[in-house]
Structure prediction request, 322 residues.
Amino acid sequence: MTTVAGEMQQQQQSPSGGPQCIACAARLAPALTCAQGTVLRCPECGLGMLENIPEKAKIFTYYTKFYDEEHSERFHPVLEFAVTLFRLLRVRVVEAFAKGKGRLLDVGFGRPIDLALFAQRGWEVHGTQIVPHTVRVAQQRGLQAFLGELPDAKYPTESFDLITIWHVLEHLQEPGSYLADAHRILKPGGQLLIEVPNFGSPIAQTFGKAWLGLDLPHHLYHFTPQSLTKLLASHGFTVVKTKFFSLEQSPFSALQTLLNALTGQRNVVFEGMKTQGQKRPLLTTLGHVLLALGLAPVALLVSILFGLARQGDIMRFYCVRK
Ligand SMILES: [Zn+2]
Prediction:
């Protein structure tokens, strides 16, 4: 990271003293508290924010262990294969939205699967990421990857046709700074695709601390359709389409949330899927996996129905730069 380590988040203070909503400037109020912290919520637009946003250096330590050092993978091999299939779906989503194959930037690309797929298909693709070994793996595969935060990459003004930000905005100390830079580096009429968890969804609101998408302390902000629309508008973007279902994310999110609520234990299956996840006793994991198999059809149905009702707990915003 090229930003100053240890720099504290400068939270906006409202005249009455509490932190202000980054989308509509209303005063935030406590919504829920768990072991990892308190989430504040905006009474106007529903945006959630972690009360005490950690220092940049601390945040960086969360992600160095997200991906394994050698191959930049996050899950066990069979699951990584499934991730690759899901990334092919992302390519289809992007290409169905794009006006043509041009210059594409993927912000916070994680592992470089998407970058490689787009490069193979004739896009001029760039990516940013804060974890050194994922950038190294991307570069070893001949991909153009910047190590650091988006505003620090200083890409030329009006140089990209399309920018994707998949499940990254909620992890940022200053989401607005990324949207401002995305606006600067997109060509006029350029396209922006963002996917984040939906804090305003019935699943999130009903299950609260058990909701997979809460993911404290990784998720610093929790967007709702209203708050994300406001934030995008204030940075010069028009939302042209929204979707509330992701085959990659929605059914599993509903499933893990149900498991968390029923068992009182958090993310046992999800952690077991990761190469560097929190390990539980084998019998505990096995019990959760069996329960997951039984609940999977319910979770799939619930996520599809909420998606159709535009209330799903994953939301994708298709935007155009004004
Ligand atoms: Zn607000």
Q: What stands out?
A: The domain at 54-244+317-321 is CATH 3.40.50.150 (Rossmann fold). Confidence is low (pLDDT under 50) at residues 1-10. Residues 21, 23-24, 26, 42, 44-45, 47, 227 surround zinc ion (CB under 6 Å).
